[in-house]
Fold this protein.
Amino acid sequence: MKSFKLYAFADEASSNIDEQIKAMKRNGLSGLEIRNVDGENVAKISLEKAKEVKEKLDAAGLITFSIGSPIGKIKITDEFAAHLDSFKHCLEIAAILGAKNFRLFSFYTPKGEDPSPYKDEVLERLSRFCEAAEGSKVTLCHENEKGIYGDLAPRCLQIHEAIPQLKAIFDPANYVQCHQDTLEAYELLKDHIHYLHIKDSLKDGSIVPAGKGVGNIKEILSKTRASDLTIEPHLKVFDGLGELEDDSKSDEEKLKNVYTYSSNDEAFDAACKHLKELIK
């Protein structure tokens, strides 16, 4: 199989940045998609904290590949101005960290409602992000996520065709959990995929290591032109998990893990190991 550069959500190994660095180093990764660091979400850290993280990563020979932001993970009916300000702060963080990519979402639509009537508002808000990011040297990337407007591939395609500068992050497990065939999703979105999040899922939504579920990860990786992968284990409860989903389920219910691990480090290492075996 082709060669890939591997990154990770290292906060799944530890909330502590020093421990995240150790986890990335021992697994031979090139850097991280930063999401939570020392107990704070990346959208909330100060510019001074970002400089501290950058110094530590530089010393370790690692990079910040992407900002794993929560931007776009509010209700489409929520007020937007403050959220746009948060996005602009994240852009400052990205500049300090030297991140070339920026993960965002396309807003939660009301549960049980047809998302179609919200299309124009979604596109308007995403366009505002793109306008604010002009000249920032970061590539904005939309991730398919359960419950947001762009949860299924056809609506993701609407977004990318309407806003071509907004690229796609392809997450197979999220598609499985939305009952979307991942190969069909890939064929629809292949020309827009910038990089992939690597986690796998069984049909019932249980998260499993790459290649152990029905996400067709190996076949998709054999086809994609993308060369960057972010490992997102989700194999054990970790600090910050509660912020990632818009429901009242417990962290354990959200993961529904079949595989069990004694520690976050063990789960993180297992996720790295299974992906490396898959792409040999």
